[in-house]
Structure formats: structure tokens, C-alpha cells
Structure prediction request, 65 residues.
Amino acid sequence: MRQITDEEKKMIWKEVLEEFPDDITMQEVHYVHLLHYCQTKGMTSKERINFFSNIQKESKENSVN
Prediction:
């Protein structure tokens, strides 16, 4: 997984706010979508599947605690 810099995160938020200026929910959904796109860019299909599988596992573990 590629680490996203703070500058890249700011640029992503700027794009998101321009696309969805009045919809906080869509801003958050679109931000995560673009963040995951940047993190997985250049990965093989298998690597991408593992990436999202790990996120799903972590999410389940955190919801139990």
C-alpha cells in the first residue's frame, strides 16, 4: 500500500469539496474512494483484493471492541 502524503490528502479534499460542496456525506464517501484509489494505484488484482480484505478484517475487529 502506498502512503498518501498530507499534501496529497489536502488536494483530494479540495477536489471532493468542489464536486460536493453541500453534501457532507458524499464528501466523506468520495474522499475515501479517492484515498483508496491512490493507495492501490499500480497494485495487481490480487494485491488490491488483499488490501480490501485487510480493511474489512480490521473494521470487524474494531467494531467488536
About this structure: The chain has one domain: 6-64. The chain has three helices and no strands. The chain has a mean pLDDT of 90.
